[in-house]
């Protein structure tokens, strides 16, 4: 029975591409190929997600600007002077007289109400 001599450092550096060595290590080679494919798929997936995130961030920024401009326009249009100009065309005008107070004395019953 022959003793296996210990491998030297140079034995690890030489590559053996015989059919027997390749078939012996085929599961490991397939595993490395699978891991490599998963790595590439993950890189493409993450790059695609980054593009989507950037697209959505730009869209959100545009919507913020649109919201701010619409809000400013609405605030301008709801000023009392602007509302008066807008309803002037249908014949409604600002009142020039001061409002009148209605005072109801206690004990007087108003029709249609109960105490």
Distance between the termini: 120 Å
- What is the gyration radius calculated from CA atoms? 43 Å
Average pLDDT over all residues = 86
- The ordered string of helix (H) and strand (E) elements is HHHH
Strand content: under 5%
Topology, number of strands: 0
General description of the model:
By secondary structure, the protein is mostly helical. The chain has a domain at 14-88. It is built from four helices and no strands. The N and C termini lie far apart (120 Å).
Summarize the structure.
This protein is mainly alpha-helical and 115 residues long. 63% of the residues lie in helices and 0% in strands. It has a domain at 14-88.
In terms of topology, how is this protein built?
Elements lengths: L8 H5 L5 H6 L1 H52 L2 H9 L27
List key phrases describing it.
single chain, 115 residues, mainly alpha, 63% helix
């Amino acid at each position: 029975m022959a003793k296996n001599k210990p491998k030297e450092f140079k034995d690890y550096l030489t590559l053996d591409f015989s059919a027997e060595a390749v078939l012996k290590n085929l599961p490991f080679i397939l595993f490395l190929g699978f891991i490599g494919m998963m790595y590439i798929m993950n890189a493409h997936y993450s790059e695609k997600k980054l593009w989507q995130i950037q697209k959505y961030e730009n869209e959100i920024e545009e919507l913020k600007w649109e919201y701010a401009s619409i809000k400013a326009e609405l605030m301008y249009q709801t000023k009392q002077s602007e509302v008066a100009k807008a309803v002037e065309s249908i014949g409604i005008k600002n009142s020039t007289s001061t409002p009148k107070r209605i005072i109801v004395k206690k004990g007087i019953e108003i029709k249609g109400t109960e105490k």
